[in-house]
Design goal:
- InterPro entries: DctP_fam, TRAP_DctP_sf.
- This protein is α/β, with parallel strands linked by helices.
- It has two domains: 22-145 and 233-274, 3-Layer(aba) Sandwich (D-Maltodextrin-Binding Protein, domain 2); 150-231 and 283-313, Bacterial extracellular solute-binding protein, family 7 (D-Maltodextrin-Binding Protein, domain 2).
- 48% of the residues lie in helices and 16% in strands.
- It has helices spanning 2-16, 38-49, 51-55, 76-82, 92-95, 114-136, 173-181, 191-200, 210-216, 241-244, 249-281, 302-327, 331-339; strands at residues 25-31, 59-65, 87-91, 138-145, 150-153, 167-170, 185-188, 205-208, 224-226, 234-240, 296-297.
- The protein has a six-stranded mixed beta sheet.
- Helix 6 runs antiparallel to helix 13 and helix 7 crosses helix 12.
- The longest helix has 33 residues, at 249-281.
């Protein structure tokens, strides 16, 4: 009788043991587009290629950059929820139409510096994580920035308001509202479409980070850059909860620590790349990581800085809150509780 009870208990224990605890399993990872540049190439890609070895977890990682798959960046949350990939390097602005709460991390004017961006992610990141777990069966494993997003144009400008009447590439509805407020014509385009669109005159200007623009060759098809940061281009790593639940508690802790180390590294590297690319794009030294070009750097005026700073309360927050509250009734109240005091609400 005792032997039967022990056997039954052992069978139950085996049935509830996470699969990843004892078996090598393929981990399908969808990364950033390779064209976005050095963060993907020097940090993200090596991290996943060496993940099994660096953590000791029984993983076989299959890493694919987004631009090799035919999947659009706006589809990433749906792709992750479906289980097609176990981990996705989420482009937050691009997927925010599926979950507007995400955009609360990076409203135009909210994160003028890396320090401000880090404070924002710590304060509002848990709210976004809870929402993604609820709606998309996705847990956040880390949040990181590409860095301040600045303006590139293929015609002379002297200040931000000179974009009046010009077609400007944007990547989310919040940025579109701010560009529209100064008379620009916002044109939503994926990153991979921008170089050709600038070359053909489909758009006159476009916004992205200096290093991403450098890697994608935007200075080849533009003449002026206004280094005024609109957003920080916050991104994050999401894991499908079904995949996550196959890890035991110890393995989950190991993986979380690995992603924490990675994202800390990216925050520092992103700032180094930003400063280097700012110099490289306008032909200055030292130029260590990026290609050297000869764009004209447009001086940032006090009026430009004030316009973007004031956009949080005047444009970007109210525009976003109205949209977000329609799908998530607690969206704007959660944001105000986490960040409202910092911006003067």
């Amino acid at each position: 009788m005792k032997k039967t009870v022990i056997s039954a208990a052992l069978a139950v224990g085996l049935a509830t043991t996470p699969v990843w605890a004892s078996e090598i399993i393929e981990l399908k990872v969808l990364g950033q587009p390779g064209a976005t540049g050095l963060i993907q190439q020097e940090k993200e890609k090596p991290f996943f290629e060496n993940l099994a070895q660096s953590t000791g977890l029984p993983l076989e990682v299959n890493f694919k950059p987004l631009d090799t798959t035919g999947i659009k960046d706006v589809e990433e949350l749906r792709t992750l929820k479906s289980g097609l990939f176990d981990i996705v390097s989420l482009r937050f602005s691009q997927v925010s139409r599926d979950e507007p709460t995400i955009l609360g991390l990076d409203l135009v004017g909210l994160n003028p510096t890396y320090e401000a961006g880090l404070a924002t992610t710590k304060a509002f990141g848990p709210v976004v994580d809870a929402r993604l777990q609820e709606r998309f069966n996705t847990k956040l494993l880390g949040i990181w920035p590409f860095g301040p997003q600045v303006l590139f144009c293929n015609s002379p400008i002297t200040q931000l308001t000179d974009i009046k009447g010009l077609k400007v590439r944007v990547y989310d509805q919040n940025l579109a509202a701010v560009i529209d407020s100064v008379g620009g014509i916002p044109v939503p385009l994926s990153f991979g479409e921008v170089h050709q669109s600038l070359a053909l005159g489909v758009v006159d200007c476009a916004i992205t980070g200096p290093s991403s623009a450098n890697s994608a060759g935007w200075p080849e098809v533009t003449t002026h850059v206004l280094p005024l940061g609109f957003q920080m281009a916050i991104n994050g790593y999401g894991v499908n909860l079904n995949s996550w639940s196959k890890l035991n508690a110890e393995q989950q802790g190991t993986l979380e620590q690995a992603f924490s180390t990675l994202t800390d590294d990216i925050w520092q590297y992103s700032e180094e790349l930003f400063e280097d690319a700012k110099r490289c794009n306008v032909g200055q030294e030292p130029c260590l990581y990026n290609n050297k070009f000869d764009l004209v750097e447009v001086p940032v005026t006090a009026a430009d800085i004030a316009l973007v700073k004031d956009a949080v309360k005047a444009i970007s927050y109210p525009t976003w809150a109205e949209i977000c509250d329609q799908s998530n009734p607690e969206c704007s109240s959660d944001w105000r509780a986490a960040l409202g005091a910092r911006v003067g609400f």
